[in-house]
Specification:
Length: about 575
């Protein structure tokens, strides 16, 4: 680097450009993006240089500054065309496409990839052709067209094997695994990831090995096997730290945080997210910073602190807009909508969901569109307009089927079942839940299976068939424990307590409520704790212990105030009523 500095200082242009280019490639391989940016910027003080623009664009893209990346790539592209360097022109077109893909502008990405492909073929650059086919597959995957994605990935894989590009083959195998996972076939996804992992380990591609371990972790996380997910993420983290990949380290810390979040251990999740945030800010990764702020917002929402969640989500939104990430903007608008729905302000929630929906459509994110339609359905269900809720759920369902999102299909079938149950049509609700259950089992979604079994239990409880409700709730409990879902375990214990209360066995009901309460406190679920304490109060009232019932309800009202619960007024009224019973 000293040679480069001296060449720049002495205005020795050819030496500065040559040394800067070679240094840049080495530093990019080590993910030292700040140094790449500094060297390229110094080189460019001597005049235009295609390699310096290209490498600086890469550094900007890798640190969440897509607009700056585009500006530099476009400068590089013009210089490559001027020099008639067709190979470099194709590489730059590919990178511009990747920036647009990262921004969620997939159709625009396709425009650039489709310019790169014939050039790679024209100059006989088989490796470049494979890269472009892989990138086009990635766009179709993001557009919700997995079959078309597979067609391009399979062409890319054939070429990469043909030219002996083992690392590239591993990347494409990873991508094919991702498609199968998205199609609701996690076992097939795992088969491809495991092929990719073997190759990455054989060729010593530590970064590729870490990426594949992360993907395998994602599969296990999606299957509800969070302990196994954690094992893979922790292996990926060790490698990222070992090779000095700070951005990869932050991503993996985020993934570990998400596992703890899913396990209901939100305090531990927060610890990992805060480590990730520090690194993202340190390396200037604005996109990673936004993702982490979103995750922290989600933790506070789960902890029953919606106001603090909003503080974080509102920090995310301007970053997404700054970096031009329309897909991320849509996700954040959705998250803000969730907060307002949880705060009992469904009209405001609707405002944010309705802002999210056209963006999801604009960027071609069919899966995101389906999610937002479902969220709008939830709002209408909460507003007491089940017919309108059904309209949105029924729009969401065919999209989930179209993009092959079996897990999403199962969730939407469950949502429709919940509307039917709310309308008092328990038999129809059961029909939808029974469609959802085998799909959840088919895709290995243990968490989804547990949720659906819970819903079926609710139907039987609503039909007054407490014994049958118990059969389903008791199937849920071991799954929640197996996957380490402490929050789900607490909810199920609460449900079993309610069944025993309905069966006229208040003592047994209390046994289950008292098992649920410490878990709810442990995971920080204050809203759930309020609900369970309310149930305890009703049992105590039923057995004539009014003083103890009042003590429980006083805690319920305080918890309601803390989380701004919609039931605060009703619970306060019940407290006053039992106080009157006690004094009268």
């Amino acid at each position: 680097m000293e040679v480069h500095r001296l060449a720049v200082a002495g205005r020795q242009v050819p030496i500065a450009q040559d040394v800067g280019r070679e240094l840049g490639w080495v530093l990019l391989g080590w993910s030292r993006f700040a140094q790449v940016e500094a060297i390229a910027t110094a080189t460019l003080t001597l005049g235009p240089d295609a390699s310096a623009f290209y490498q600086r664009g890469w550094a900007y893209s890798s640190t969440g500054r897509p607009q700056l990346a585009l500006a530099n790539y476009e400068q590089a592209l013009a210089l490559h065309r001027q020099a008639e360097d067709r190979t470099s022109e194709a590489a730059t077109l590919n990178n511009i496409g990747s920036v647009y893909a990262g921004l969620g502008a997939r159709r625009q990405a396709l425009v650039f990839y489709e310019q790169a492909l014939p050039i790679a073929r024209e100059v006989g650059d088989r490796a470049g052709e494979a890269t472009t086919l892989n990138n086009i597959g990635h766009v179709y995957d993001g557009l919700g067209d997995p079959r078309q994605a597979l067609a391009f990935y399979e062409q890319a894989l054939t070429i990469r094997r043909e030219v002996g590009d083992q690392a590239g083959a591993a990347t494409t195998l990873n991508n094919i695994g991702h498609v199968y996972s998205g199609l609701g076939d996690p076992q097939q996804g795992l088969a491809f990831y495991e092929q990719a992992l073997t190759i990455a380990q054989e060729v010593g591609d530590r970064a590729g090995e870490a990426a594949t371990l992360t993907n395998i972790g994602h599969v296990y996380d999606g299957l509800g096997d969070r302990r196994q997910a954690l094992a893979f993420y922790e292996q990926a983290l060790t490698i990222a730290q070992e090779v000095g990949d700070r951005a990869g380290e932050a991503t993996t810390l985020n993934n570990i945080g998400q596992v703890y979040d899913g396990l209901g251990d939100r305090r531990q999740a927060l610890a990992f997210y805060e480590q990730a945030l520090t690194i993202a800010q340190e390396v200037g990764d604005r996109a990673g910073e936004a993702t982490t702020l979103n995750n922290i917002g989600g933790v506070y929402a789960g902890l029953g602190d919606p106001r603090q969640a909003l503080v974080f989500y509102e920090q995310v939104l301007p970053i997404m807009r700054e970096v031009g990430n329309r897909a991320g903007e849509a996700t954040t608008l959705n998250n803000i909508g969730h907060v307002y729905a949880g705060l009992g302000d469904p009209r405001q929630a609707l405002v944010f969901y309705e802002r999210s929906l056209p963006i999801a459509r604009e960027v071609g994110n069919r899966a995101g569109e389906a999610t937002t339609l479902s969220n709008i359905g939830h709002v209408y269900a909460g507003l007491g307009d089940p017919r309108q809720a059904l309209v949105f759920y029924e729009r969401s369902l065919p999209i989930a089927r179209e993009v092959g999102n079996r897990a999403g299909e199962a969730t939407t079938l469950s949502n429709i079942g919940q509307v039917c149950a709310g309308l008092g049509d328990h038999r129809q609700a059961l029909a939808f839940y029974q469609q959802a259950l085998p799909i959840a089992r088919e895709v290995g979604d243990r968490a989804g299976e547990a949720a659906t079994l819970n819903n079926i239990g609710h139907v039987y409880a609503g039909l007054g068939d407490h014994r049958q409700a118990l059969v389903f709730y008791e199937q849920v409990l071991p799954i929640a424990r197996e996957v380490g879902d402490r929050a789900g375990e607490a909810t199920t214990l609460n449900n079993i307590g309610r069944v025993y209360a309905g069966l006229g066995d208040p003592r047994q009901a209390l046994v289950f409520y008292e098992q649920a309460l410490p878990i709810m406190r442990e995971v920080g679920d204050r809203a759930g704790e309020a609900g369970t304490r309310y149930n305890v109060a009703m049992v105590l009232r039923a057995v004539g212990d009014l003083a103890a019932a009042v003590a429980e309800l006083e805690q319920v009202v305080e918890l309601d105030r803390q989380v701004e619960h919609a039931d605060l007024a009703d619970d306060t009224a019940m407290l006053e009523q039992i106080r009157r019973e006690l004094s009268g």
